[in-house]
């Protein structure tokens, strides 16, 4: 305040310290703890987004009265179901339920993959984002052998016969 009781305007270009206990604690304990704190916040935010996603899915299912409009083609789903030779007949409701289940599966996997892309500060969903979502989520363990985990290294050209750049990868040597 100045002498007449008016508030003093802030000086432009000079930053005043802002008390933020979490940032101060993280800064005093080292960069690892700060990173860990940020990672923990991201994980909590992703969990909240997934909870909102599933709440919306349940609400949408409860409000659905028209089962004739589908995002996925029912004929394709029936064809996949009939690929199992033990399946003889398929009730009319079964492909509809499968279509909705497939849609929800794709949505959740995409949601988790998008979270990985955002963690890496990208706006394009890539194959490695899907692979990361699969490896991070126990429910998707059945896909671990299907989706390759190399982080885009297959796009890097190597001379013929050169060893892989990733020490954990392997290659076949003819004998």
Automatic annotation (TrEMBL):
This is Nuclear transcription factor Y subunit C-6. CDD domains: HFD_NFYC-like. It comes from the Eukaryota. It is found in: Nucleus. Its main location: nucleus. Residues 71-134 form the Transcription factor CBF/NF-Y/archaeal histone domain. GO terms for molecular function: DNA-binding transcription factor activity, RNA polymerase II-specific; protein heterodimerization activity; RNA polymerase II cis-regulatory region sequence-specific DNA binding. PANTHER family: HISTONE-LIKE TRANSCRIPTION FACTOR CCAAT-RELATED (PTHR10252), NUCLEAR TRANSCRIPTION FACTOR Y SUBUNIT C-3-RELATED (PTHR10252:SF106). One of its GO terms (cellular component) is nucleus. The gene is LOC105050619. Residues 152-175 are annotated as: Disordered. Pfam families: CBFD_NFYB_HMF (PF00808). Keywords: DNA-binding, Nucleus, Transcription, Transcription regulation. Belongs to the NFYC/HAP5 subunit family.
């Amino acid at each position: 305040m100045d002498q007449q009781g008016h508030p003093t305007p802030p000086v432009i270009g000079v930053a005043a310290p802002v008390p933020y206990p979490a940032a101060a604690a993280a800064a005093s304990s080292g960069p690892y703890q700060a990173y860990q704190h940020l990672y923990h916040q991201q994980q909590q935010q992703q969990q909240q987004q997934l909870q909102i996603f599933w709440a919306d899915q349940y609400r949408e299912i409860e409000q659905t009265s028209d089962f004739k409009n589908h995002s996925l083609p029912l004929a394709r789903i029936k064809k996949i179901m009939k690929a199992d030779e033990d399946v003889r007949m398929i009730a009319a409701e079964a492909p509809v339920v499968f279509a909705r289940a497939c849609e929800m599966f794709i949505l959740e996997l995409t949601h988790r993959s998008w979270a990985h892309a955002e963690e890496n500060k990208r706006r394009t969903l890539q194959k490695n984002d899907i692979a990361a979502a699969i490896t991070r989520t126990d429910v998707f363990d059945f896909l671990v052998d299907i989706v390759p985990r190399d982080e885009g290294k297959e796009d890097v050209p190597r001379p013929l016969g050169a060893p892989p750049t990733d020490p954990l990868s392997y290659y076949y040597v003819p004998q």
